Amino acid sequence: MRILVLGGTGYLGRHVAERLRALPGAHVVAAGRTASAGFGVDLATDPPERLAKTLVTAAPDAVVNCAGATGGDAVTLAEVNARGPAVLCAALREAAPTARLVHLGSAAEYGPGTAGVPVTESAPACPVTPYGATKLAGTVAVTSAALDAVVLRVGNPVGPGAPLASLPGRLVALLRSAGQDPEAVLRLGDLSAHRDFVDVRDVARAAESAVTAPGPLPAVLNIGSGTAVPVRELVHGLARRAGFRGRMEESTAGSARSAQVSWQCSDVSAAARALGWRPAHSLDDALAALWTADAERVP
């Protein structure tokens, strides 16, 4: 089975590609914008014709699109998260119409949730940020493309290799810098929002299941832990793991984003039915793996 992983050199893409390479008989090619990628692909700028040529060369049985932007201005987000999937679908229709497409979407597409109520795939999508809006546009491009495709709406991924642009990655860097200094002070924003944190290794396993599942799949499947926890719990969990002895100062002013989306939790029962998938790792598992992996990178 030939599998092309777009965004294969990024945070999620690396884990997905590694997981897929363990499949018996799988030939996995990672594509991305960096020199380390097997194929040079930039969904933000490549025209459909060029991408179609890449697909002809790769001849994939399945494509997993892990490419995406989480930060930057609205134009950057739109180019990667909205234009990218649309161009990919156009190229697939021309060059590999029978390949299965597994596209990684985001729970941010739903927008504000209701406290205590996990959101299902049938809930209306009402994103309140440019990121959520552009990810939703990408989802619409995939679900309306008349391809063998499924969108995995991923919660907040946590685990080994978390980038500095994410809260877990940034916090690890701060805790490394603070060390065991009892006088250290970490000044953080509002940590009261509830989020559905999912281990990145569980995300990779869900992508594998979506690639290999027989028959047509639902258009959209939620991939999360199925539980909402305060962001504060993640922060304190990492601090305990680090043996942090200093003081944390949490802003009481809040943030615009947390105020707009104070609760986020996904109902993952549809993924269990369609893929036989359930999260296998707890938040503590994810934090332990994140801290250990980061320690191995420190000289």
Automatic annotation (TrEMBL):
It comes from Streptomyces dangxiongensis. Pfam families: Epimerase. It comes from the Bacteria. Residues 3-224 form the NAD-dependent epimerase/dehydratase domain. Transmembrane segments: none annotated. Belongs to the NAD(P)-dependent epimerase/dehydratase family. The lineage of its organism: Bacteria, Bacillati, Actinomycetota, Actinomycetes, Kitasatosporales. This is NAD(P)-dependent oxidoreductase.
